[in-house]
Amino acid sequence: MSGGRNRAAGRVTIAVVTWNHRAEIGDCLAAAGGQTWADVELRVVDNGSTDGTAELVASGFPGASLRRESENGGLSRALNRALAGATGEFFLTLNPDVVLSADFLDRALRAFAGRPEVWCVAPRLVRPDGALDAAGVEPTPDGRFRNRGEGSRDPLAFDRPGEVFGACGAAALYRSEALESLAGPDGEVFDEDFFVYREDLDVAWRAARRGFRTWYEPAAIATHRRRWPGGGRSAVPRWIRRHSFKNRYLMLAKNADLGFLARSFGPLVRHEAAALAWTLVREPHLLLAYGQAALRLPGALRKRRQARRAS
After folding, report:
1. What is the pLDDT of residue 155?
2. 1 pLDDT higher than 50
3. Structural domains in the chain?
């Protein structure tokens, strides 16, 4: 992926990756295309949907650029392909189950003004029932990450803008040039070994090491309906849960330094012991994820070395 490409100043490329999202995609694209910010490029990458998602996008949203993949190659690969053809100065990753407020881009873009060190703006994501979904993301003592304020029903909670570790990829607004600068020799910005989940945390961690900063802007609001409502973990397909489990280890292998490991050692060990016990007793199918992580570990360490040389 080539960096330094000329892009239209002020234009926002909105990238939506779909995979059997026919039930959600209409509201998402209608809100994305109805922004008060005038200069918007809407790009949809369909990962081989079989439920008519791509046909709905093609017929109902002819202004959107639609790329149809023959198979589901993962969220990260689709985002990389959307970014490769993006013409906007800014790049918004947007889940199909997210509905932007009409002034979302107006509000979010203001956060970049006067802050050249800010590469990404994290919005205020809320759930349909009014609970807070994410006010950016933050690290935890045991080496994991969580959505700030998730589940809070206090309307005044997290109402102040400020710096955060990263943004939830369900709706994260990046400077395109800064995002592309994270690409390795293989051209990947979003790590395609991750397939889905934690790719947003991985890029945030890599960006932080470069000195880039993420800004939380609570005035930029979007509703996150979430794809797997009501059923908790059991509602998420097993193969997707395994990707999430596997990606935690790839993320740590690529990004954790000795200082981080020293600070997190005790909580990290306790979490890993608890995770293994949970896996053995409740979700033995996740044992496959340990093997998947091990197979990809050499590649993760290679990417780690490449990123260190580039930073």
Report:
1. 84
2. no
3. 8-224 (3.90.550.10), 236-310 (no CATH)
